[in-house]
């Protein structure tokens, strides 16, 4: 690598420190990624930034993702590769701004897409086992069953369920007013099982727990609002009683709600509305889940799979 390229890198680091006030830790990370980039260019025989092409930058990112088993260089995750590209692009952008380069070939290079982690779900039988494993002989048991039925029956977030008030339940209409992100409210249907669990809790459970201090629907033993942490513990305990070994969370029931709806033929726009997603793009991850299930069934069932 020519000294001019390394001089540009040093000038950019100085610019970041003096003009942008970058922290020592940030500068250290940038210096490491710059050295990685400049050394890689050296390895392919490129001696000057002006000779770099967009194709070479794309190959640089791909090489980071592949790693090199022969040298023990481990593959970088998509997020780490994206950060390395940000640094390389920043160097080229700075060189153009300083007049050292005429064209910014890095501007058109996109970072690698992050791996999409499909949400874990429970089968319908597992959900039934989870809920049925909760006894309703005590006010606490009635509350716990109402919590589980609400989470799975409405697909609401745990914070939305623990934030419910008594007035949010419209038993006659079979609807629930859920307050989501940004205090945006949506109406969600209450199924027959969820409605019965909530009704039983309101009649036989909540009065025994209430100290008259709050309008919160779900109460703790002291009569205050049930916290998210306590709700998490309730779900873990129910899973243990049901013999479910999956590492489930409140969001697992939300994922299961969406997946089971789509598998049952629900329109994705309806599921989007029920989940309170502002964009259908967020909801589309569940179509990947159901597509995976379809492929698994096909592989097991089709004679030429």
TrEMBL record:
The keyword Cell division applies. Residues 3-96 form the Core-binding (CB) domain. One of its GO terms (biological process) is DNA transposition. One of its GO terms (molecular function) is tyrosine-based site-specific recombinase activity. The active site is at residues 157, 181, 251, 254, 277, 286. Residues 117-299 form the Tyr recombinase domain. One of its GO terms (cellular component) is cytoplasm. It is found in: Cytoplasm. It comes from the Bacteria. InterPro entries: CB, DNA_brk_join_enz, Integrase-like_cat_sf, Integrase_catalytic, Integrase_recombinase_N, Integrase_SAM-like_N, Recomb_XerD, Tyrosine_recombinase_XerC/XerD. Keywords: Cell cycle, Cell division, Chromosome partition, Cytoplasm, DNA integration, DNA recombination, DNA-binding. SUPFAM superfamilies: DNA breaking-rejoining enzymes, lambda integrase-like, N-terminal domain. Its main location: cytoplasm. NCBIfam families: PRK00283.1, recomb_XerD. HAMAP family: Recomb_XerC_XerD (MF_01808), Recomb_XerD (MF_01807). Forms a cyclic heterotetrameric complex composed of two molecules of XerC and two molecules of XerD. Belongs to the 'phage' integrase family. XerD subfamily. Site-specific tyrosine recombinase, which acts by catalyzing the cutting and rejoining of the recombining DNA molecules. The XerC-XerD complex is essential to convert dimers of the bacterial chromosome into monomers to permit their segregation at cell division. It also contributes to the segregational stability of plasmids. This is Tyrosine recombinase XerD. It comes from Corynebacterium kalinowskii.
């Amino acid at each position: 690598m020519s000294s001019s390229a390394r001089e540009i890198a040093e000038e950019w680091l100085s610019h970041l420190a003096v003009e942008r006030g970058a922290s020592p830790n940030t500068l250290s990370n940038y210096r490491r990624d710059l050295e990685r980039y400049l050394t890689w260019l050296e390895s392919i025989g490129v001696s000057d930034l002006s000779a770099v092409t967009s194709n070479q930058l794309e190959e640089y990112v791909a090489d980071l993702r592949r790693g090199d088993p022969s040298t023990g260089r481990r593959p970088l995750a998509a997020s780490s590769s994206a950060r390395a590209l940000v640094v390389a692009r920043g160097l080229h952008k700075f060189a153009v701004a300083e007049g050292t380069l005429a064209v910014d070939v890095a501007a058109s290079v996109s970072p690698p897409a992050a791996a999409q982690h499909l949400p874990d779900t429970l089968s319908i039988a597992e959900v039934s086992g989870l809920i049925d494993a909760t006894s309703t002989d005590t006010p606490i048991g009635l509350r716990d069953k109402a919590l589980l039925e609400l989470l799975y029956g409405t697909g609401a977030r745990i914070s939305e369920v623990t934030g419910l008030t008594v007035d949010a339940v419209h038993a006659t209409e079979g609807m629930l007013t859920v307050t989501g992100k940004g205090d945006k409210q949506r109406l969600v249907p209450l199924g027959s099982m969820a409605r019965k669990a909530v009704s039983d809790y309101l009649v036989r459970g909540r009065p025994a727990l209430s100290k008259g201090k709050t309008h919160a629907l779900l109460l703790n033993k002291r009569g205050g609002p049930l916290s998210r942490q306590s709700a998490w513990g309730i779900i873990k305990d129910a899973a243990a009683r049901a013999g479910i070994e999956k590492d489930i969370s409140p969001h697992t029931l939300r994922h299961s709600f969406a997946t089971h709806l789509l598998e049952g033929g629900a329109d994705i726009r309806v599921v989007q509305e029920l989940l309170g997603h502002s964009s259908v793009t967020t909801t589309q991850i569940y179509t990947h889940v159901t597509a995976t299930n379809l492929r698994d069934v096909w592989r097991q069932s089709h004679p030429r799979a």
